[in-house]
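STRUCTURE:
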């Protein structure tokens, strides 16, 4: 299982490309992009936002801690009272749910 933040990102990129692409679109939308690029990025961000909002609050919290605050799994697991392996399984399940919701909404 990936340990470093970069290994985790690589793992997510390979295993869940639709989720990762939507996540990246929200972070990489630039003011210098063309109007169509901004429109597409905005729509992807809205779709991802809707999919995340449909998750349970504790699942949203896990994603926020990991992707927004960039905390490592070990730290999140400790804060949530879970083992690192249980947290990784939960994270993978959340990404699968997100992927399914994003694919259905496309």
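SEQUENCE:
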């Amino acid at each position: 299982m990936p340990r470093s933040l970069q290994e985790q990102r690589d793992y997510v990129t390979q295993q869940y490309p639709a989720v990762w692409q939507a996540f990246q679109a929200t972070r990489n939308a630039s003011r210098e992009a063309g109007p169509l690029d901004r429109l597409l990025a905005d729509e992807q961000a809205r779709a991802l936002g809707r999919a995340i909002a449909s998750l349970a609050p504790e699942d949203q919290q896990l994603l926020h801690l990991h992707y927004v605050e960039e905390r490592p799994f070990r730290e999140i697991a400790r804060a949530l009272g879970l083992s690192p392996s249980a947290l990784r399984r939960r994270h993978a399940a959340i990404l699968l749910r997100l992927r399914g919701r994003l694919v259905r909404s496309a």
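REMARK: The CA atoms of residues 57 and 83 lie 19 Å apart.
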